[in-house]
Design a protein that fits this description.
20% of the residues lie in helices and 32% in strands. By secondary structure, it is α+β, with helices and mostly antiparallel strands. The strands form three sheets. A four-stranded mixed sheet has the order 1-4-3-2. Strands 5-8-7-6 form a four-stranded mixed sheet, covered by helices on one side. The longest helix is centred in the middle third of the chain and has 13 residues. The termini are far apart. InterPro entries: Glyas_Bleomycin-R_OHBP_Dase, Glyas_Fos-R_dOase_dom, VOC_core. This is VOC family protein.
Length: 151
């Protein structure tokens, strides 16, 4: 008789982005207001407190090698992943988009009413990683900087 394994506790703890120029990317995320942690890593890797999962930055080629994936060709188009910056109001969405663009982000899509009753727009970081800036029904942003989902 086989012993049934207890499933591990699922958790998403770090989102690591492969970047072309870590110095530029560190400066960009600091300019957006994310708090850098573990600065002793220098420019080998960078970690930021986001109020939820940690955001990591790692040189693209080294991240690919670490995961045993090909570094080339790098996709120049959508990679099937977006990051989200949830907001409490439509005005906050507009302010975040303007702020990010002012810090060097590329505006991908201006803020607009969504078909699900929300309001969102998109910007891209220096490596083209897309961020949705959004206020959405059923998703509340708490004072703890975390999102709280309706049941």
């Amino acid at each position: 008789m086989s012993k049934e394994l207890t499933p591990p506790v699922p958790r998403l703890t770090v989102i690591t982005l492969g970047v072309s120029d870590i110095r530029t990317s560190i400066a960009f995320y600091v300019a957006l207001g994310f708090s850098r942690r573990l600065k002793a890593t220098g420019e080998a890797v960078a970690f930021f407190d986001t109020g939820g999962p940690v955001l990591g930055l790692f040189p693209w080629d080294q991240l690919a090698a670490d995961a045993k994936l090909a570094d080339q060709p790098r996709p120049a188009t959508f990679r099937g992943v977006t990051l989200a910056w949830n907001c409490a109001t439509r005005e906050e969405v507009d302010a975040v988009l303007a702020f990010a663009v002012g810090k060097g982000a590329a505006l991908l899509k201006a803020a607009h009413e969504t078909d699900y009753g929300g309001y969102s727009g998109y910007f891209a970081d220096p490596d083209g990683h897309p961020w949705e800036v959004v206020v959405a029904p059923g998703i509340e942003v708490g004072n703890d900087r975390r999102v709280h989902l309706a049941e």
